[in-house]
Design goal:
With 464 residues, this protein is of the alpha/beta class. The chain folds into two domains: 207 residues, Serine Threonine Protein Phosphatase 5, Tetratricopeptide repeat, CATH 1.25.40.330; 149 residues, Pectate Lyase C-like, CATH 2.160.20. A seven-stranded mixed β-sheet has the order 3-4-6-8-10-12-14, with no helix packed on it. Strands 5-7-9-11-13-15-16 form a seven-stranded mixed β-sheet, covered by helices on one side. The longest helix is centred in the first third of the chain and has 26 residues.
């Protein structure tokens, strides 16, 4: 009987693992199922998939709705991560540019998971979606050195802000949600232990293995066929879209000229107007020879601006992070107190800054996430949109200027921070309270009156 129970347990784990990984014949990056002996650290990762991940996926299906849809995306991301571990176990580490290309499908999937949360802000399961969305960049540990474990710990903490809300809402009403939280957090906890045991200073590659890009390029997630090795062909659909956008922009530019747009028109005399000359209507609508009919001038279409290459490098005392797009695992570490960070035109990306630095500037960025330890000077957000900032240590001043959408998570050590804002909207400060955060909006509207000897300005609160 004991042997029978053991066999049943093994079969249950096998079924859960198959359900988690799916039934596709080629799930890994660079590996055909069954063609190679799995490395010990791949088998160790499989145990996580068969344990807390399988439980999380099973409970997500039972909860249904948006949580189930979200879990399917997470499942695909984990399938890719498992496949990438297979590749690393059999291949040499590629150059950084090739590594970025290999991991692009994972970055795209992480972005899809986060966008799903943004598109479903009205969902009754929004806290569940947020817990996943805020922590899923932790799968980017594959590129973090020398300490990927602490990076995953930070992403786990980000999830717990929202899982605590789930527990608070359901702990006395529905135990299934509580079990869902436990399974999801357990995955991240076990992943930290797994990394500490197998990839302490970074992902372990096979120094005597094959070339990764020649072995196989990363498969596209979501059912699309894998791209061929080497650089991808030019995207003609993107070019066509750019041309259409440019044409529409030129058209709107002409429309915005108002009365000036008619300056190119030729005057048509009354003798040539059919509504004022009945004789013209009697001959089948034809008009006598006269001025050449007006032909609108074709607006010149300016060529699309050349997209600058992404950059993350130290230039003297300045860390420059520019033109990063859809990258969820940017990390700056080994910092010094005299250094500053300048982040420019980064879109849908997440940047983590380790250590204590002088200042941080975010300029013209969209949907950027920033996590940092300590800043001795100022953090500036300028001309940006939908920026989220988490302070883990201390910062004396945060400046928000010409920015729409800014959420700042303060730590207990940074509650004395001064926040200066101008020409900005949708700003919220989140203050830690026990195991949760309380959200406080920064006023956007003010009332100013003349008191007789000076102007007096007060905050205007809109009710209703």
């Amino acid at each position: 009987m004991a042997n029978m129970e053991s066999l049943v347990q093994r079969l249950e784990k096998a079924v859960l693992r198959l359900e988690t990984l799916g039934s596709s014949g080629r799930n890994e990056v660079g590996s055909t199922e069954g063609s190679d002996v799995l490395a010990p650290y791949v088998e160790a990762f499989d145990e996580i998939l068969a344990g807390p991940v399988a439980t999380y996926y099973k409970l997500s299906k039972e909860l249904g709705g948006d949580v189930e849809k979200h879990a399917s995306m997470v499942n695909e991301a984990l399938k890719f991560q498992r496949g990438f571990l297979v590749t690393a176990s059999q291949c040499q580490q590629p150059p950084q540019a090739e590594l970025t290309q290999l991991l692009q499908p994972l970055s795209n999937k992480i972005l899809q998971i986060q966008e799903f949360r943004e598109k479903n802000r009205g969902s009754k399961q929004f806290n569940h979606l947020s817990a996943i969305s805020e922590s899923i960049p932790g799968l980017g540990w594959l590129t973090v050195t020398p300490k990927p474990g602490p990076y995953v710990k930070e992403m786990t903490d980000a999830a717990m802000f929202y899982t605590n809300r789930v527990l608070k809402e359901y702990k006395d009403t529905d135990k299934k949600h509580v079990d869902w939280v436990k399974a999801y957090i357990s995955f991240w906890t076990e992943l930290q232990a797994y990394i500490k045991a197998n990839h302490t200073t970074g992902l372990s590659w096979n120094k005597s293995g094959r070339i990764a890009t020649a072995f196989h390029s990363a498969p596209a997630l979501g059912g699309a066929p894998p791209p061929p090795p080497g650089p991808p062909p030019p995207d003609t659909s993107c070019s066509a879209s750019t041309e259409n956008t440019s044409s529409r922009s030129a058209l709107f530019a002409d429309l915005n000229k108002g009365a000036d747009i008619t300056s190119r028109l030729k005057h048509v005399p009354d003798s040539s107007k059919t509504h004022k000359n009945p004789a013209l209507r009697s001959v089948g609508g034809t008009t006598p020879a006269g001025p050449t009919p007006f032909k609108a001038a074709t607006p010149s279409v300016k060529p699309a601006a050349k997209k600058e290459p992404p950059k993350l490098e130290l230039q003297g005392k300045k860390w420059v992070v520019e033109n990063q797009e859809n990258v969820s695992n940017l990390v700056i570490q080994d910092t010094e107190l005299k250094q500053v960070v300048y982040v420019y035109e980064c879109v849908r990306s997440t940047l983590t800054i380790k250590g204590k630095i002088n200042s941080i500037t975010i300029d013209n960025c969209k949907k950027l996430g920033l996590v940092f330890d300590d800043v001795v000077g100022i953090v500036e957000i300028i001309n940006s949109k939908d920026v989220k900032i988490q302070v883990l240590g201390k910062v004396p001043t945060i400046s928000i200027n010409k920015t729409d959408g800014c959420h700042i998570y303060l730590s207990k050590d940074s509650l004395t921070c001064e926040i200066v804002s101008a020409k900005s909207s949708e700003m919220n400060i989140l203050i830690p309270e026990k195991d949760d955060f309380a959200e406080y909006p920064i006023p956007e509207q003010f009332k100013t009156v003349w008191s007789g000897d000076k102007l007096v300005t007060t905050v205007t609160e809109i009710s209703g």
